[in-house]
């Protein structure tokens, strides 16, 4: 199965997708990732730690610092990804992070290394469509989906530019702000997802500030996927070696809420 | 990248790139905002009323033009080239920072923004921002590393007197770059009403361009003043570089004068051989941080490393993207000066000219001292004295072993 197909298959399931994020190198990442899959995550986002995570709130900032504090390198992150791919051949894996660690050795190097590690998509927070040349062509060349973000400030006029060259799914950042803070009102999410679905066939996953099964379930009724990050990352920070068990529990309750929500009607439907 | 362009003064391109550098590497939430800012800046550039208000405030509020001064005793002491100073330390608030803050707050008002944020290291840009916010009656939040808040308490008090809220930043390692991260986090959460006044010629396009343009008043005045005083342009321009705004302000109007050489002076801290310096151009590698591609202090994995300099204003792991381009094209030469050399130059200027310089231009003065000795007596060096040293007397006293 090639990369884009793995993501497409996750969103083609008869229920909305749960997308779960943890930071690479924070705690026993392999065990944490396995716990997310066992709990029912449909897509995994693996955070690449960076010294300056300027779009992230305190929870993910701290996870970055913990990871870098124990000496996590880019090679470690890729190794975590490669081993995950070995254990879970069908679960889509997306790397999420910032431009500088991704392009340090050149975009070709990174795209090649990510491809060899079995990565399906890459979310780079600080490469907007205007700077796509910095990494986008190299990722597409290797069959890796450059997953873009749309936000409440992305207007109708700009949306086609965001969609151009993007792949995998569209990540809707539901609040203008940083990760892990407040959650957007359900009505504004519904309105935004409707607007996005009219413009693209890509699945729409909604994230930022989603913490509880209730919130996740509500969003899953209108979107194709729900992204949870900070709430999971906080468990890793609080529970250390015992984190996998806690992650499995939270993921299972999130998955139950998300998977039982009625699937959002597709553009055609 | 062209190594010999016809002009060095037409950067950046329409995408905000200076050769390979610059650009708009920001989160999607901020993208529409920086595009708005660019549109508004283009409109302001074409509006004579905007320029008139900027000029009027610089003259009557900031105190421009700043004097051009022949440092006769320093020249004699060095025994070589004539040394002249552009006296931007005589501006209101004591540094060049205010030039840019005036321009940006006029843009903020033009855009209908009602809240101002900024980052600061040593506190000079924070004080300048708090000053213009008081002048125009806008609320102001300044992000400052917790460690800097402790070390620079007089500037923290100044900002508070001026009505600003100073937020100590404890995230990350609590340094200037973390203060900038926190500024960006605030901005992304308050895009509807907030204007971010960036303090140097860095960040996403159009900031490097507009900060340079506002600071170019330094070089424009200096060209005219030099012609008036000696009937020709200087042979060498020298300026200190942290983010690089005072240097670009001086250099940019001279970039197409082939006989004018230019020297940018980075902070070598304890020396370029180790990790304890803040010389992004001489000791760093290209990368992406805080919205632009430029030279950065970083490790082999692209993690940003901490800069070090005795001067808190130079202690930043990046550099404005136009300097990265000017370095690669070879138009500007870059060198670095250690903490020790800067301290010596600081004292030299105090004793020879009766001017207490900030530690930032002390780096430029140290480089001037080296170059002047190698140049003939009829040659002319013009250095930017971009800040006064009152804020640094505690740091200098500590280094000299004096208890205050």
Write structural notes for this entry:
The complex is a heterodimer of chains A (269) and B (404). Chain A has helices spanning 3-11, 29-39, 58-69, 74-87, 99-103, 107-116, 136-141, 159-163, 186-197, 213-220, 230-239, 243-260, and strands at residues 17-23, 43-47, 93-97, 121-124, 145-146, 149-150, 170-173, 204-207, 225-228. In chain A, helix 10 (213-220) runs parallel beside helix 12 (243-260). Chain A has twelve helices and nine strands. The model of chain A has no long low-confidence stretch (mean pLDDT 94). In chain A, 45% of the residues lie in helices and 14% in strands. Chain A has a nine-stranded parallel beta sheet. With 269 residues, chain A is α/β, with parallel strands linked by helices. Chain B has 404 residues and is an alpha/beta fold. Chain B has two domains: 24-58 and 97-211, Rossmann fold (3-Layer(aba) Sandwich); 63-95 and 215-399, Rossmann fold. In chain B, helix 9 packs across helix 11. Classes of the chains: A alpha/beta (269), B alpha/beta (404). Chains A and B meet through helix 3, helix 5 and strand 6 of A and strand 2, helix 1, helix 8, strand 11 and strand 12 of B.
Fill in the keyword field for this structure.
heterodimer, A: alpha/beta, TIM Barrel, nine-stranded parallel β-sheet, 12 helices, 9 strands, B: alpha/beta, Rossmann fold, 2 domains, six-stranded mixed β-sheet, 16 helices, 14 strands
What's the overall geometry of chain B?
globular
Structural class of chain B: alpha/beta
How many β-strands of chain B, per DSSP? 14
Oligomer: heterodimer
| Tally of DSSP β-strands of chain A | 9
The Cα radius of gyration of chain A reads: 17 Å
* Pattern of helices and strands of chain B: EEHHEHEHEHEHHEHEHHEHEHEEHEHHEH
CATH architectural name of the largest domain in chain B: 3-Layer(aba) Sandwich
Q: Roughly how many Å is the radius of gyration of chain B? A: 20 Å
Main sheet strand line-up of chain A: 5-4-3-2-1-9-8-7-6
> In CATH terms, what is the fold-level topology of chain A?
TIM Barrel
